[in-house]
Each structure stands twice: as C-alpha cells, then as structure tokens.
Write a structure and sequence with these properties.
- There is one protein chain.
- With 412 residues, the protein is of the alpha/beta class.
- It is built from twelve helices and 14 strands.
- It has a six-stranded parallel sheet, with helices on both faces. A two-stranded parallel sheet has the order 2-7.
- Helix 5 packs across helix 6 and helix 10 packs parallel to helix 11.
- The longest helix is centred in the middle third of the chain and has 24 residues.
Length: 412
C-alpha cells in the first residue's frame, strides 16, 4: 500500500498546521479545565460542539478533499475538520499532536440489520426520517439476535500503521486506536422493531421485552469480553459522548497500555426511545441491563436527548456515572436542583436555534445564560454541549457565532 507524492504532500501540509496548533500552551490549559470539570471541581463551565452538518459547512474549499487514495482521504477529512473547527468554532476543543488510525477490528454483528423505509428532504443530509420494520415479533424471532465474533486483522492494521508513519513521521504521532464500547440497548432494539411495537410490548408483553433486552445484553457483554481479552479496547480517550473525557482518575491502577481494560475507560449509555415512559417503567426495562455495563467501566456518561430531569433518582443508581445529559426538553432549574454538586450537568442546548429564520443570537445567549444561572444557584458543574446539528440553513456563520456567544457567556 503506497502513497502518491501528491497525497503525501497534501497530508503533511495539513499535519504541519495541526502540529503548530497542538504545540500552543492553550492546549494543556484547556485539558486542565476539562480535568477540573470532570473531577466536579470546575474552574468555569465548558463548551463543546459536535455532530455537525458538515455538508453545509464548506467555506472557500476549506473542507474540500484533495487526496485520491481512500485511506488518505479519510485522514485528510479528519485533519481538515480539525483545522476548520479551530479556526471557526473552537469552543473548548483540544488539539493533540496525534493522528489516530483505527485498528482493523472485525465484528460479525448481532445478526440483525436494519429494515426500513426512509423519507429524505435534503439529499445531501444524512439526517433522514426512518420507518423501521419489526423483525422481533415472536419468541422464535429472538434467535435472530446473535453473539458477535470479534477478531483482529493484524496484517491490515500493520499495513495501515506503516503507511501512516510514512506520511506523518516528524510531524504528528501515529496512534493506533482500538474500540470504545458504549451501550444503548433500547436505541438499538428500536432500529430492529420501530418505536410503536417496542413501546406497546412494554405494556402488553413485558416478559417478551425483557427477554429481548436480556438476550442483546448477553451478546453485548460477550463483545466487550472479546475486545478486552484480545487487547482491542482504546486508549488515551479524548472525548465521551461529544464532551471532553480528560481526567486524572483514568486509567485505573494496574493499567497496561498494550492491553487496556474496560475499567480504564469512560463509557456511556442512554434510552432515547424512553423519553415519554414513566420513571418506573424506564427503570424496570433499563437498570437491570445497563447497570452491570456501567459497573465494568471506570467512569460513565448517561443520557442523550431523552429528558432526565424527572428521572435523576434512577440515574443515581447507575455505578460510576459522572456526567448526566440534560436535553433541550428538561426544566433546567429542576434538573440543576436534583443534580447539585454530585454530577456534571451536561446541558444540550437546542440546535433548533440554528435552524430558525431569522437567526437570533440574542435568543441563544438568553438560553445559555438560563442554564448557567440555574447551575450557579445549585452549585452544578456545567458543560454546554451543542450537538445533533442537522442544519444551519447553509449559513455556517451561525454556528461560528454560537461558539463565540457560548465562550463569551462562560468566560464572562
């Protein structure tokens, strides 16, 4: 696997720019801020932006790929996005002098794919509407869920590593990266069934639903066992669910970088499909399965878009949780009063502000200040994590300005 002179030149030019940014003292300063926040001793609220509608963001060809080789194009895309974010929407990102290349880990999967119908409004956008076909209707269908088989294509990994070193040596460190497993059982099952069958069966056939979740959980645990036994878990975790993962608490004592364990890592879990179920039902159908998963890891992040302000008594039962998502649909005052100083209040500001016409920066600032004021009143460590950005109406400067507003609010 060789690299053309043109591809190598393109990547080294980008890598040189990344290396210059990574050498700035502000990188370690920002790492220290993330560590303090994750230790529940915040120096100030933190800000991050992720899950961007990249198809709308290209300005003056900053994101246009030049490489021809598929491997090189993948690396180029990552480098260009790093440089773009640093220039336009930095927030509290950390740029390390590293290029990550993922190991060639093979996974046979859980035996079920996704059968669906889609509705697309913007053909360039991968955010679409889904109608999932129910594949788990009977007891016999439970056999469709299989235990994944994990293997490592060492030759493919070695080839990729050799090629990366040939491109980046002298500029960036090449880090061969493993897997960072997470578990969202209900969000997986809904893609095999659809929302209505899953929710109806929780009331009409609760034992059947428990058997589905238990079978998937057994398969997921086996997958984690295999990754751990084969030394295929990741190292040097920079993010967890779109937020900074920097901490002095991990890796755990006894860490071997050649053979990382689950307890050396963060994980996260969620059940977004449970947004409208009661706290009691949420706990019944999730805690017995997700609780043991969290117990295997060093630290955890819980939740995503589901509103959790009224379910924090349940979340407190999960081991190792350090950050709790507070989505756009929570009562921030009540959520902050329940979280207090015990967890990071991981606020997900609404990305809808970026999709409305006209663009209203003042509304963004009011929304962010409402969260920060509530967190101050209740002593909550706070982070503002803008994600799930499906559109900015092809006006990238909206997102750049959101970043500027958020930094001004948290620093002022």
């Amino acid at each position: 696997m060789t690299t053309t002179t043109q591809d190598r030149t393109t990547l080294r030019e980008l890598a040189g720019r990344v290396a210059e940014i990574a050498a700035l003292p502000v990188q370690q300063e920002t790492v220290a801020f993330w560590k303090a926040s994750n230790a529940l001793k915040p120096l100030r609220p933190m800000v991050a932006i992720d899950q961007v509608c990249w198809h709308e963001m290209n300005v003056e060809d900053e994101l246009t790929l030049r490489c021809e080789d598929a491997f090189c194009r993948g690396l180029e895309g990552g480098l260009r996005r790093t440089l773009y974010c640093w220039r336009h929407m930095r927030a509290d990102m950390v740029v390390e002098p590293v290029v990550e290349v993922y190991k060639a880990i093979r996974n046979t999967g859980f035996g079920l794919g996704v059968l669906e119908e889609r509705v697309v409004t913007d053909p360039r956008n991968d955010v679409v509407s889904h109608h999932y076909i129910d594949q788990l209707q009977t007891e016999a269908d439970l056999g469709k869920i299989r235990v994944p088989e994990i293997s490592h294509d060492e030759a493919a990994t070695a080839e990729a590593e050799e090629k990366a070193h040939a491109i980046f040596d002298g500029l960036l460190q090449v880090r061969m990266q493993g897997a960072f497993p997470v578990y969202a059982p209900l969000d997986m099952i809904v893609c095999w069934r659809g929302a209505e069958p899953l929710l109806y069966d929780m009331a009409d056939r609760p034992e059947f639903m428990h058997r589905i979740i238990a079978r998937l959980t057994e398969a997921q645990a086996s997958m984690l066992d295999q990754l751990e036994e084969q030394g295929l878990l990741g190292t040097h975790q920079q993010t967890i669910h779109c937020t900074g993962a920097y901490t002095d608490e991990l890796p755990a004592p006894g860490y071997n970088p050649a053979h990382p364990r689950a307890r050396d890592l963060w994980t996260f879990g969620m059940s977004q499909i449970f947004s409208t179920v009661s706290p009691a039902m949420h706990e019944e159908f999730e805690l017995p399965y997700l609780g043991p998963w969290f117990a295997r890891f060093g630290l955890g992040y819980y939740g995503c878009c589901e509103p959790l302000d009224k379910k924090l008594a349940m979340v407190r039962k999960y081991p190792r949780v350090r950050k709790i998502s507070q989505s756009p649909w929570v009562d921030v005052e009540y959520g902050a009063s329940q979280i207090g100083r015990d967890f990071v209040f991981s606020r997900k500001p609404s990305p809808a502000f970026l999709a409305w016409d006209p663009w209203d920066p003042a509304a963004v600032e009011r929304d962010l200040r409402e969260t920060l004021d509530a967190c101050v009143r209740h002593g909550c460590p706070c982070e503002l994590i803008l994600k799930d950005i499906s559109t900015v109406r092809y006006q990238p400067r909206r997102l750049w300005e959101w970043s500027e507003i958020a930094r001004r609010v948290v620093e002022g």
